Amino acid sequence: MGTNTTTAIGLWAQAARPKTLPAAAAPVFIGAGLAALRDGFAPLPAGAALLGALLIQIATNLANDYYDFLRGGDTEDRVGPVRVTQAGLIAPEQVRNAMILVLIAAGAVGAYLAWIGGWPMVVIGVVSLVLAVAYTGGPYPLAYHGLGDLFVFVFFGLVAVGGTVWVQQGVWPVEALWAGSGIGALSTAILVVNNLRDIPTDRAAGKRTLAVRIGVSASRAQYLALVVLGLAVPPLGIVAFGWPPATLATLVIGLAAIRPTRRVFGFTQPAQLLPALGETARLVALYGVILALALAFGG
């Protein structure tokens, strides 16, 4: 019984894909840091925003696992972490039901945020819940029509940072959009690596990601541009919004970005991008923590 329970927990943890969670948490950290910079940090709303973001990410991961299997996007030829539905580790209907339960939990957190933040949070919450499924499910899945990159940039950047500031302070300042563009760009870079790796299998399955549409060379340039944008945000934030000079500490990720960038520009086989995926995810986590702390305490 103990072994079976342990195995089940491990499988569900694998389905939740915890390595993707820093991309959900980082923009909330930054939004909390911005609020602290302007003497508006509110721990309970910020904590609820973090919990909601993590639940939405997990629900999206489960939805991707389920719907990519149904649509044939995940096959035995896929390179990368095991998808539990495609591998037959968890029954499809169980993954679907788990997705629904996590969405309900996210909705409960969203109700609290809507009570605090009013109609803007109602809109953000409803759209986020819908898009968690619509990313790979529904009649027009975003990922299958080359819109995944835009979705990640907007919701893991602009909306996540801005919404976190809003529930704490009741304002949505321009600097929140600027900060969101930096972390949104880096989060999108994770997706670029993922989609570069999957071009052969996505093309065969009819999944027209942006990487499939624009090809390897343009996707490599996109990755570099996104990393550069992320690095440009803090120094320009100092000039435009008076951010503390300590935010320049985020430039340390420029060094950490060298290795994954080399992998992206040098790979010849999809499997060679697997390390770059984790390295880029760690860039996002490091960037989010450093920028949040610098905003909160650097001034």
UniProtKB/TrEMBL annotation:
HAMAP family found in the cross-reference section: MenA_1 (MF_01937)
Protease recorded as keyword: no
Origin organism lineage: Bacteria, Pseudomonadati, Gemmatimonadota, Longimicrobiia, Gaopeijiales
Enzyme Commission (EC) number: 2.5.1.74
Family under the similarity heading: Belongs to the MenA family. Type 1 subfamily.
Function per UniProt: Conversion of 1,4-dihydroxy-2-naphthoate (DHNA) to demethylmenaquinone (DMK).
Gene Ontology MF annotations: 1,4-dihydroxy-2-naphthoate polyprenyltransferase activity
Membrane-protein topology: Multi-pass membrane protein
CDD domains associated with the record: PT_UbiA_UBIAD1
Listed transmembrane segments: 98-115, 121-138, 150-170, 176-193, 280-298
Pfam families: UbiA
Origin superkingdom: Bacteria
Pathway membership: Quinol/quinone metabolism; menaquinone biosynthesis; menaquinol from 1,4-dihydroxy-2-naphthoate: step 1/2
Protein name in the entry: 1,4-dihydroxy-2-naphthoate octaprenyltransferase
Catalysis performed (reactions): an all-trans-polyprenyl diphosphate + 1,4-dihydroxy-2-naphthoate + H(+) = a 2-demethylmenaquinol + CO2 + diphosphate
Keywords: Cell membrane, Membrane, Menaquinone biosynthesis, Transferase, Transmembrane, Transmembrane helix
Cell location: Cell membrane; Membrane
